[in-house]
Amino acid sequence: SKTRDSFTSKVNDLVARYRKVDEEFFEDLEEVLISADVGVETVMTLIEELEMEVKRRNIQEPEAVKEVISEKLVDIYYDDDDESIETLNLNEDGLSVILTVGVNGVGKTTTIGKLAHRLKQEGKSVLLAAGDTFRAGAIDQLDVWGERTGIDVIKHNEGSDPAAVIYDGIQAAKSRDVDVLICDTAGRLQNKVNLMNELAKVKKVISREIDGAPHETLLVLDATTGQNALSQAKTFKDATDVSGIVLTKLDGTARGGIVLAIRHELDIPVKFVGLGEQVEDLQPFDAHQFVYGLFGDLIKNDSHE
Amino acid sequence: MAFEGLADRLQGTIKKITGKGKVSEQDVKEMTREVRLALLEADVNFKVVKDLIKRIKERAIGQDVLEGLNPGQQVIKVVKEELTDLMGGEQSKIAVANKPPTVIMMVGLQGAGKTTTTGKLANNLRKNYNRNPMLVAADVYRPAAINQLETLGKQLDMPVFSQGTDANPVDIAKQAIEQAKEDHRDYVIIDTAGRLHVDEGLMDELQQIKDTVNPDEIFLVVDAMTGQDAVNVAESFDDQLDISGVVLTKLDGDTRGGAALSIKAVTGKPIKFAGMGEKLDQLEAFHPDRMASRILGMGDVLSLIEKA
Ligand SMILES: Nc1nc2c(ncn2[C@@H]2O[C@H](COP(=O)(O)OP(=O)(O)OP(=O)(O)O)[C@@H](O)[C@H]2O)c(=O)[nH]1
Ligand SMILES: Nc1nc2c(ncn2[C@@H]2O[C@H](COP(=O)(O)OP(=O)(O)OP(=O)(O)O)[C@@H](O)[C@H]2O)c(=O)[nH]1
Ligand SMILES: [Mg+2]
Ligand SMILES: [Mg+2]
Question: What is the pTM assigned to this prediction?
Fold first, then answer.
């Protein structure tokens, strides 16, 4: 594909900056990956495999190692799957429910606004449910997104039972015959057992009311988060059976490399990336482009020319 | 399995060298490899780790094995000392202006916890120092940011100065100070919008607020779960605003929090407070020594040294 070709050419550039494949080359590669928050273990395994592969094929020229790097990295991500893992799973002839979960402040509510806009642009009718009844101003915040996108929001008062709001959201979605219901939830740290149980209960309400729902449970991850993202993914997966990730705040300088480890170890694919605070700032995930982005620094680094 | 503590990591190497009289270069090399991995897994920045490892190697090689301490315990002790040193002493004091009101500005990336911490600090100032703070809603960008601060103000029964979302944050801050003087408020805490450290326009806005209100404190609020990018963020905010301290939030989670070490290493500015929950009374003084143990894998490190 086009992306794959341009990715390979970028790796070409990268590799052209080194005269030989030596210890220094691998050290730099390791640093680049670590500074992009790729999981430490994943990096170590990757470098080991690369070193072995280079020995096995008796590769001396950096030029020749490029194939191996791009293969390995994209392999880690896709394994036996292909790009189809990145598409949003929706019920094409009936109501679809999307549940949004994650720790505090990662961008759940904002992502809902952007995603709702995107789905509406695709011609779908959308409804939002204000399931964060805890954080100060959370309901008002979702309301503003509702106004911005021209989409209704089902809400209760601050402090009420989140499961009850979601239940009402489902009933409203059914009676209005909308295509997609997106449910907001309060941010919670994954080590808070009570709050994780509360979330599992919300999920159960959705499954009980609609067969096969939620069609997507999206874990929102902040790209600036380091190794803890892996623990977030594990625990939220256990509690709510997460089906996909939205990686937000990639418009900063963080790279969000931890999603490689998450996909590798927990088999959860990234579906969207957040690139800003505006309604249009949500894009489908592209693994090739992402993997290339991890090398930004090494490519800019001229010291080995 | 990830998130192994340093002590676990060192078990294997320790066994091999128990009974030796001196820590050899090879022993230290093996152990510092484990130290490096443990620190990286705790999200300490790789450049900071590099410097630390260099110092640890210098200190550990050739040391006589202390009575009762095996080489592994000795390395852990050196690491712990280096980390605690780097993190500095405890400093949870808040400035007091000669002429009230004392002005505090809250800055940081999106979602770090600025608005919540604004409420917590105000609560802390009233409860522990008998002060009368006023909160200022200078985030005109994030949907319902003003609502959020007003809700916190209501919970605390404290005044919130706001001029809606059409006003300019610089003017809001300026007029808030006037109002505070009139109302005899002794602290003004300004909540600003989250922004990226590379967003020139918005960073410039902070600079303008700073020039206008002359704050006594500028607190950079940082999420404790931040990874390798923490150094870039802290360095940029500090370069552009000369921050006076850091508040590390969400430490009630299970993150190792290596960002704390990175931030301290690149800015030299003290981490003053730790956010320990979403509620307004969940702000604590920051304890550098506890943080050092946490980064290294919590209590197991301490107990290993204490057992010796
Ligand atoms: N730069 C940038 N900021 C973002 C992005 N996504 C969200 N934000 C900002 O991050 C902050 C937190 O976003 P929210 O949507 O409130 O996050 P949340 O997960 O709902 O937060 P809680 O409900 O408090 O747990 C806001 O200031 C958003 O504008 C993104 O992709 N890029
Ligand atoms: N568990 C926990 N959550 C916290 C802590 N501090 C803040 N939060 C939560 O983190 C989320 C974001 O907090 P805010 O205070 O809105 O963050 P902010 O920096 O003002 O966000 P923006 O204005 O969008 O940039 C909210 O869900 C808070 O409740 C903390 O110490 N522990
Ligand atoms: Mg939210
Ligand atoms: Mg805020």
Answer: 0.93
